[in-house]
GNAT family N-acetyltransferase
Amino acid sequence: MNQIKKLSHDHYPEIFKLSQFAFQYTLNEVELEEKEKEAERHEIWGWLEEEQLCAKVHMIPLQVNINGNKVKMGGIASVASWPEYRRGGMIKKLLLTVLQSMKENGYIISYLHPFSVPFYRRYGYELTFPYKRYQIPIETLKKKWSPNGYARRSKNYQELDKIYSTYINRYNGGLIRDEKWWQQRVIKKDTIITICYNDQNEPEGYLLYHVKDRILYVEDMAYVNSNGLKLILQLLSNHDSMVTSVEMKVPADDSLPLLVDEPRYEQKLVPYFMSRIVDVSAFLRQYRFRMTDRFHPIAIEVEDEFLPENTGTYYLTKENSDIVVSRDKPDGKCQHIYCSVQQLTSILLSYQNATNLAGLQLIQGDVTAIQTLDAIIPNKQTYFPDFF
């Protein structure tokens, strides 16, 4: 008998056997125990034949910040199948089941890290979270940064989270981390944790890193203001006797090259995470649009081939000083936009703007409607420094 079902703790041996095979790693007893603890927060769906696991998808229930709104996000991870069952449509059916379950349970958006971008585009996902990767010679960072304050090694989770929350709120789509996430996903066994304080002993930045083969690898960093950034840069430069370079990932709009004397170090823009709106109606209703004097009523005609219940027309009109969303056609004239759920996701996350996508013929519509949509979307860089 073939069936899709939600897996339980009893299936853990099969789940991790498949993961180790598919992703080509081996877990010792301690590592396996840690993985099982992480999996306790996962919702794991599997395809079984005769009670044998053939394929699986993990859904991680998380929350992210979109335009200052805390929303439920379903993270897709550990998608795997045994080779003899591949290309039979199992993963497609599992993803459909998981997305439908997400929608029923109030998850309005989903993220994933793709092994293949074309593969996940078939299911409505689009690249929305890039980052820049720097490889900086330590000599480039050796200057008098003149910050006010000091740095100390610490494991104060509350201070780390306070700094991170302030920092990530500048960006769109960042994860709202809980203590379990910090302990299981951010802070690793060999991670050096340093918190930077100002002269009033207030935390203004942190640096999580490790050093190997004379390279300093930044695992995570955040700061609340320019002094916090300078404290971090001073701390990095203090490693000049033991490292030759620093590797870090930063938001795509990062401005560090403006602060150093020699900005011609290696900088690479990396496409990273994909996302898709799971429930278009709920997402639009929760979205914080920006009212503008240039607002005109618009109708967004969305096509979602994988979740066809999202397909349809969504009307954006003005009510008092707010923009409201309805499926019912309003009185009066509306200008129309036609787009896929992928492009709608990239627009609403502020990753792309409607004018550029129209110029590439990835969306269509009236010029006035496209300009109106751009005007009411807050301009906020996407950034997702986490991984799952």
